[in-house]
Amino acid sequence: MVEALRTMIVSGRLEPGERLIENRISQTLHTSRGPVREALRELEHEGLVQSFPYRGAVVLGVSEEEVHEVLIPIRLTLERFAFAKALERMSDADFADLGKIAWMMEEAARGLDLQKVVEADVSFHELVIRRAGQPHAVQIWRSIAPRIRAYFLRYGQFRDLEGLVGEHRALLAALQTREPDVVLPLLEQHIAVHSPL
Amino acid sequence: MVEALRTMIVSGRLEPGERLIENRISQTLHTSRGPVREALRELEHEGLVQSFPYRGAVVLGVSEEEVHEVLIPIRLTLERFAFAKALERMSDADFADLGKIAWMMEEAARGLDLQKVVEADVSFHELVIRRAGQPHAVQIWRSIAPRIRAYFLRYGQFRDLEGLVGEHRALLAALQTREPDVVLPLLEQHIAVHSPL
DNA sequence: TATTTGGCTATTGTCGACAATCGAGCGAGT
DNA sequence: ACTCGCTCGATTGTCGACAATAGCCAAATA
Hints:
The structure is a homodimer.
Chain A: H1 2-10, E1 19-20, H2 22-28, H3 33-45, E2 49-52, E3 56-59, H4 64-87, H5 92-110, H6 114-131, H7 135-155, H8 161-177, H9 180-193
Helix pairs in contact in A: 1-3, 2-3, 4-6, 4-7, 4-9, 5-6, 5-8, 6-7, 8-9
Chain A binds a DNA duplex through α3.
C-alpha cells in the first residue's frame, strides 16, 4: 500500500512541486489517512517529498547537480565498501540469484520496459549490498537509491539498455572471481559512466 | 513529541536489542499510538531502530566497524562536498551563528556535559551543510548523524572535549578565509581523527 | 514420543472522528 | 489607500476503537 504511492511519485506521474493532500490520496488509493501518512513520511526520508507542519507536502525534484555531486559520490563510497565486503561472503545461491536478476533485466531491456530494467538494476545492487552483512549500509542504500531511480526515470532518456545489461553480467562475473582488484575498478566505472544506475 | 523518544534512544537509556512496544511507549509519553508510530518510523529511517511487520521494533546497536567503514567515509564524502559548496555562500550572520554554537560548545565542555557538547557539534556541521543549498545533502546528513551521535554517546568515553572545541574554532576561522585549500584538509583531519563527530 | 492442529494472547495495522493550526480573504478603522 | 485584526475554510495532528496477524502453548493424534 505504501508501494503504490511511492511508484506514483518515482515513476514521474506526479510532477515536482505538486501538492500531496493526505485526504485526496487516501481516497484515490482506497485506504485511510493513516497508511498515507506513513507513506509520505517514508518518501520524505527518501528525499522524494518535503512536508511542512500543518501545511502539507510537495513532490521534490532532483537537480542534476545534486545527483552528480552528492548522490553519485556517496553511492560510490557506499558500494565500494559493500562490494568489497560482500566478495568473501557471497554463496553460489547468491550468484544464481544475481544471474536471475540479470536475466530479468535482459528481458525487460528487450521489451524496452525502462521501469522494469531500472527495478532489476536496483535489485542487483541491493542484493550485493545486503550480502555485505552491514545493516546500516543497506539502510543508507535504501535512502539514496529511490532518488537516483527517480532521476533516471524522469530525466534519463532511453540509453543503451543492452549495454547496461552487459555491464551487470560483467559485474557478476567479476564478483565470482572474488578478486577485489577485478571487481572494484569495474564497479567504479559502472557507476561513474551510467551515472544514474 | 518525536524528539522525546529519539533522545531516549540516542542518549542510550534504551539498550540495543530492547523491544519497543507502541502501547507502552505511548503511555509513558502520555500520547497516543499515532505519534509513537511516526517516531518509530523516523528512527527506523535513521537506522536506530529496526521493525518487523506485526512483530514490533527493537533498538539497533551500531558496531564500531560500521561506524568506521561506512558511516564515517560517507560522512566525509558528504561534508567535503557541502563545505566546499557552502564556502562561497556563507554570510557574516552565518559566521556569527557558528561562533555562537562554538561558544555554547565551550560552555558545555567546561561543564563536562557530553550531551550538550555533542548537540552543539551536530548543529555546527548541520548549519554549514544547510548553507550548501542542496536539500538532499541535508537530508542525507540527517539520516546519518543520529547514528554517529548515538555511537559517540554510547561507547565514546570522555575524550578531549576542549580539543574538540578548539577544532571547531579552527574550522570556523578556516571557513572565513573562504579558501578551499585551507578548509578541506582541516575538515578531513577533523572528521578522521575525532572519528565520531 | 514426535507432530500437527487449534485456539489464545500480545502486538501491530487500519479506520473514522475530532482537535489544532495555518493562511487567505474580508472588513473596519485610520 | 493602507494596516490591523477577525473569521473561516482547508489541511494536518491526535485520539480511541476495532481488525488482522504472528508466535506460543496445550491438546489431540499417529
